[in-house]
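Posting this for the archive.
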Amino acid sequence: MTRLGFIGLGTMGHGMALNLLMAGNSLTVWNRTAGKGVDLVCDIAADPIELGRGSDIVFVCVSDTPDVEEVVFGDNGVIHGLARGAVIVDHSTISPRATRELAARASDSGVSWVDAPVSGGSEGAEKGTLAVMAGGLSEALERARPFMEAYSKKITHIGEEPGSGQMAKAVNQVLVVLNELAASEALLLAQGAGLDLGTTLAAVEGGAAGSWMLSNRGPQMIARDWRPGFTIDLQQKDLRIVLDTADELGIPLPGTSLVFQLYRALQAQDLGSEGNHALVKALEELAGIELGE
């Protein structure tokens, strides 16, 4: 039996690890914050090195580029416990450029790297319906694919080059935030016109105006339910990666830049832990009205 390890049991990782266990896999977990994962019926490693010694494939799902580097290559990093021929699947959303560098370092230790950021929110992680954008060698991805299918409904191999999955995730995040901006503006317009928001949402979501963000976050916005599937703080981290990458490529992203600044204004109000659909609050301040008034 292939031995699996999972590092990072946060908003996304916990649901993914649980689905791996429910599929009958042998799993060892480790989390930087002690206490997370104690509800999972599996082995809990003392540190990443120990997890690496007991794993053939390791999945990583942490917050940012420095976090990935630390749990993989730090003094207690998993790379020091892995045998040659092992595979690291990084589900974090991090810099494409950094991913290429990390993959090269792993290769020097005989370990394959698959960058495989995900989309679908905490709901997708729990339901096993995530979309995965994967970069790296096909052989390494195919070794991991049967296990990734426990928490994914679609796994797309973007390319053999490490970092190509992260680049596709940057594209994904542009679409996410601009769809959220569109949903926010549209619902605020409906509010200002005195329309019933639920009825209006039902009328438009099945046509050309429909989107995942509108159907899944629209009802939360109407109910003023700001519980996160993905927080503003994490969304901003992703947008920094997007905008840095676009700057390197010389690609103008005016809409994405606007959303970044609106989120920054919300962070200044200590709203960074709210769901990314709280973007509408920035527009409410500009309009002087709130959804549900």
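The chain has a mean pLDDT of 96. The two ends are 57 Å apart (CA to CA).
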